[in-house]
Amino acid sequence: MFNNFIFFIVIIAILCVIEVWANKKNNNVGHANTIAKPENKHTRQQNKGRIRDNRKEILLVNRQNRLYETYLPKDLIVPNIRFISNGDPGVRKMRKVAGEALEKLFNAAETENIVLLGVSGYRNYNYQVNVYNSSVYRNGKQHADKYVAQPGTSEHQTGLAIDIVSNEYTNLDEIFVNTRAYKWLKENCYKYGFIIRYPKGKEDITGYKFEPWHIRYVGIDVATEIMNRNITLEEYCGK
């Protein structure tokens, strides 16, 4: 009788162990299925980066919405515009929709005797690593974080942003605001789907200092709304 009782207890214990093991395995499988996969090439916080609009040109990239290291736009072109003569020819590409819009913007400016010059468009993740590390080396990390995006947080990796100057002034600094080119850009870039991405007075929202040279393609409708409401892309996306 006693032996039967012991046998019964052992069987119950074995069944309990099997059930616990099975539940643990199922939980692990379920957890694995919730991990986001990088194949879609969007931000790590994908929903946050595309609020209100499912078009790829509204992709929000900043310190909170990081791109994967492998993110690469498939439709990159070199826009038919003037580039700064001493610039890096390896960063002249943009996504097709942005590059074609940029050509129209440059042509429109030229009709008013304003000569714009492209500096830096698409930059891949590894290129941004070098840009950021170089800035840290020259100016220190605190300064770099105000002006230079860390790898994975740069809009240049989207292929939708470009730094531009003009024949009046060719340095990427705030003195550019004193040029006719900047005044024209500020008043007209939205007509071609672009915004001044990091405007003055919005540093606490964008996370970056004022960059009058950095424009970003978002499409004409969105650019017009952002301009009319005097908001940033973060505010447009509700972030």
From TrEMBL:
Query: A single Gene Ontology molecular function, please?
Result: carboxypeptidase activity
Any Gene Ontology biological process: proteolysis
Q: Matching CDD domains, A to Z?
A: LD-carboxypeptidase
In which domain of life is the source organism classified? Bacteria
**Positions of the D-alanyl-D-alanine carboxypeptidase-like core domain:** 93-219
Recorded hits in SUPFAM superfamilies, A to Z, give: Hedgehog/DD-peptidase
The UniProt entry, under Pfam families, shows: VanY
Alphabetic keyword roster:
Carboxypeptidase, Hydrolase, Protease
Q: Which PANTHER family has this protein been placed in?
A: D-ALANYL-D-ALANINE CARBOXYPEPTIDASE, PEPTIDOGLYCAN L-ALANYL-D-GLUTAMATE ENDOPEPTIDASE CWLK
Instruction: State what protein this is by name.
Output: D-alanyl-D-alanine carboxypeptidase
Q: What is the scientific name of the source organism?
A: Clostridium botulinum B2 450
